[in-house]
């Protein structure tokens, strides 16, 4: 008995979750939290929030600052326990509503609903009366307007657009699938970011977000074979490319691809996205010296990026190297910022009797490495949601007809597209009034 009571209490609690007001409230809370997650950058370092959300700037001193963000977990809001609890409640709300309301409503929609009086339909129904009685004509009129018809003695029930009643069920099902996909990603997914110089080998190690049961692919080794940038005519960047080669832990080649933005490399459910790039340093020779690697500084002037470095030529003077693109001319200035000359890569120039040769500009590529095991489930949920939304625009319409010795009563109801339904009623009345059956065919149809 205690087990039965516990089940009843649990079911009653779940049924309360299925109320429309609670579902809408949960959905609004989810939307509000998602909006905060869109405004506040996610999964950044504490130093980043200290810099961008300081305490001593009005009017955010009492509303939002880096301490509030860290303490409330707004820096990782989508994995925050509070957000997960809200999603779980919304999941059970949809699930309970589907089984307690939607499926029974669909089952009832398929039942024959003969009425002895059309007044039994709700107040929003359309009512009309026809003076002469012809069961054959009304059946034919409903059939021409694509209604499914059920006839019993002097009563008729017909409907069309049953798919419009199925659509809400699929909407719930699609959202449930999407939430399941998100839960799978939350448990088993991870995200890493790497900045790798061209020609270097890398492992997946810089984890910025990981699921509770996620596992890193420790048998994968990557190498950046090549990095290049394609520019527009106005010197802006059109696209940048990275050639990634994948090896196993035995240094055996597995896969390779040129990736760019919106064209990642996918291998064994691990996705490598192109996200960013940086210039790391330059390699050069001064006189008869060995190859020297010099760090590059990035500057922004008039919304244009410039890279520069200060290079000593001898004990008395130095030059400044400036360039704006990879594989482009490098401009050389003296210590008084006077332009001297420009050279290309691997081209020699003599400055103060000293030979200078730029061998290579070394770039870094930014990669985001992700495992999303629930992504296929999530995409399936979105696809079903789009289809069900289109189907939901179909109207579910019902028409009841009752006859007496003196006249015929017709009542109709639809859940949407009222004007279209009124046109259906007018068409049915016109066909019923104007169509004349051949006498022998009329007798045969009515006898059936």
From TrEMBL:
<dbReference type="InterPro" id="IPR023494">
    <property type="entry name" value="Cyt_c_bgen_Ccs1/CcsB/ResB"/>
</dbReference>
<keyword id="KW-0201">Cytochrome c-type biogenesis</keyword>
<keyword id="KW-0472">Membrane</keyword>
<feature type="transmembrane region" description="Helical">
    <location>
        <begin position="20"/>
        <end position="40"/>
    </location>
</feature>
<keyword id="KW-0812">Transmembrane</keyword>
<keyword id="KW-0793">Thylakoid</keyword>
<dbReference type="Pfam" id="PF05140">
    <property type="entry name" value="ResB"/>
</dbReference>
<keyword id="KW-1133">Transmembrane helix</keyword>
<dbReference type="InterPro" id="IPR007816">
    <property type="entry name" value="ResB-like_domain"/>
</dbReference>
<feature type="domain" description="ResB-like">
    <location>
        <begin position="22"/>
        <end position="301"/>
    </location>
</feature>
<feature type="transmembrane region" description="Helical">
    <location>
        <begin position="377"/>
        <end position="396"/>
    </location>
</feature>
<dbReference type="GO" id="GO:0017004">
    <property type="term" value="P:cytochrome complex assembly"/>
</dbReference>
<feature type="transmembrane region" description="Helical">
    <location>
        <begin position="82"/>
        <end position="103"/>
    </location>
</feature>
<dbReference type="GO" id="GO:0042651">
    <property type="term" value="C:thylakoid membrane"/>
</dbReference>
<feature type="transmembrane region" description="Helical">
    <location>
        <begin position="169"/>
        <end position="190"/>
    </location>
</feature>
<protein>
    <recommendedName>
        <fullName>Cytochrome c biogenesis protein CcsB</fullName>
    </recommendedName>
</protein>
<comment type="subunit">
    <text>May interact with CcsA.</text>
</comment>
<keyword id="KW-0934">Plastid</keyword>
<comment type="function">
    <text>Required during biogenesis of c-type cytochromes (cytochrome c6 and cytochrome f) at the step of heme attachment.</text>
</comment>
<feature type="domain" description="ResB-like">
    <location>
        <begin position="352"/>
        <end position="425"/>
    </location>
</feature>
<comment type="similarity">
    <text>Belongs to the Ccs1/CcsB family.</text>
</comment>
């Amino acid at each position: 008995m205690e087990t039965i009571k516990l089940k009843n209490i649990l079911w009653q609690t779940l049924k309360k979750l299925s109320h429309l007001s609670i579902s809408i409230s949960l959905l609004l809370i989810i939307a509000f939290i998602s909006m905060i997650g869109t405004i506040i950058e996610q999964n950044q370092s504490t130093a980043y929030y200290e810099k961008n959300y300081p305490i001593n700037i009005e009017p955010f001193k009492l509303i939002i600052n880096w301490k509030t963000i860290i303490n409330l977990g707004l820096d990782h809001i989508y994995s925050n326990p509070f957000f997960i609890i809200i999603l779980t409640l919304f999941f059970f709300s949809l699930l309970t509503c589907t089984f307690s309301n939607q499926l029974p409503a669909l089952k009832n929609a398929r039942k024959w609903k003969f009425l002895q009086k059309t007044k039994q339909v709700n107040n929003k129904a359309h009512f009309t009366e026809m003076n002469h009685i012809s069961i054959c004509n009304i059946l034919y009129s409903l059939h021409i307007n694509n209604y499914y018809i059920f006839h019993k003695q002097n009563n008729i029930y017909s409907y069309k657009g049953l798919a419009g009643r199925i659509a809400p069920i699929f909407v719930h099902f699609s959202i449930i699938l999407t939430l399941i996909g998100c839960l799978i990603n939350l448990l088993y997914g991870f995200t890493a970011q790497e900045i790798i110089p061209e020609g270097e080998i890398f492992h997946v190690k810089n984890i910025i977000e990981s699921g509770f049961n996620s596992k890193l692919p420790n048998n994968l080794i990557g190498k950046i074979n090549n990095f290049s940038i394609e520019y527009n005519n106005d010197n802006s960047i059109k696209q940048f490319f990275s050639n990634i080669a994948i090896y196993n832990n035995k240094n055996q080649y597995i896969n390779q691809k040129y990736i760019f933005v919106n064209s990642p490399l996918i291998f064994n459910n691990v996705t490598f996205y192109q996200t960013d790039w940086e210039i790391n340093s330059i390699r050069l020779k001064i006189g008869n010296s060995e190859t020297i690697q010099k760090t590059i500084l990035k500057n922004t002037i008039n919304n244009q990026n410039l890279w520069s470095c200060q290079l000593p030529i001898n004990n008395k003077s130095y030059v400044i190297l400036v360039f704006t693109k990879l594989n482009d001319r490098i401009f050389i200035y003296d210590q008084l910022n006077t332009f001297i000359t420009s050279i290309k890569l691997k081209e020699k120039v003599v400055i103060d009797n000293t030979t200078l040769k730029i061998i290579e500009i070394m770039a870094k590529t930014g990669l985001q490495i992700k495992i999303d095991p629930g992504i296929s489930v999530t995409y399936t949920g979105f696809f079903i949601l789009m289809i069900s939304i289109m189907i939901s625009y179909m109207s579910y319409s019902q028409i009841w007809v009752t006859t007496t010795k003196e006249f015929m009563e017709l009542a109709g109801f639809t859940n949407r597209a009222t004007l279209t339904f009124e046109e259906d009623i007018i068409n049915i009345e016109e066909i019923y009034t104007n169509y004349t059956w051949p006498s022998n065919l009329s007798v045969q149809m009515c006898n059936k």
